[in-house]
Each structure stands twice: as C-alpha cells, then as structure tokens.
Design goal:
This protein is an all-alpha fold. The chain has one domain. 63% of the residues lie in helices and 0% in strands.
Length: 107
C-alpha cells in the first residue's frame, strides 16, 4: 500500500453536518471514507472526460483527413447521438476502485 498523508480541509458547517449524518446513519464508516469515495468518483469522472476528449480529438482528425464529402445535418445528428451514447456508456461504467457508476448524465 502507498504512503498515506493526512490533510486538513475547511468545509462549511452544513457540509460537515451532512457528512456526520451519513456516518451516524451507518452509510459510511467515517468522514474519511466519504472523502475517499468522493475522490474516487471525481477521479473516475476525470478519466471519463479524458477518454471522451481523446475520442473526439481522434474523430476530428479523422474527419479532417476524410476525402469524402461533408455530412448532412441529419448525418451529423446521427454521429453526435452515437458519440453521446458512447460517452454515457463511459459514465455509467463502474469505477474500478469503488464499483459505483458515475451518476452524471449527458445533457
């Protein structure tokens, strides 16, 4: 296991009460566990965003190099619908560490 470092974080009283309530209810063992889960989910979300950006960059390069005629508006809508589905699948994929999906939905 890696070295563990302790940090201090200032939070509003309302947020601390929410964390304490979650611990008291038994949902989490400690506020530290809540923070670790939140960081795991944040990390997963960033990974999803990085993959989505890389995929879009690849598609832009592919489109720029494509000698075929430009797509119609309907064809573009279809491509964007497909990409939105791929992004949503990445978001819904369980996180490797927590096993929980990222709860955000593609707008």
């Amino acid at each position: 296991m890696s070295n563990i470092e302790k940090i201090s974080v200032a939070l509003p009283a309302e947020t601390l009460e929410l964390l304490d309530a979650a611990v008291r209810s038994g949902e989490y063992a400690s506020t530290g566990e809540i923070v670790r889960v939140a960081i795991d989910e944040w990390t997963h979300k960033r990974d999803v965003q990085d993959k989505a950006v890389a995929r879009l960059r690849g598609l832009v390069i592919e489109a720029e190099n494509d000698p075929r005629p430009s797509l119609s508006e309907d064809e573009m809508d279809s491509v964007f619908d497909e990409l939105e589905g791929e992004l949503q699948a990445l978001i819904d994929a369980p996180d490797a560490q927590s096993g929980a999906p990222v709860a955000n939905k593609v707008a």
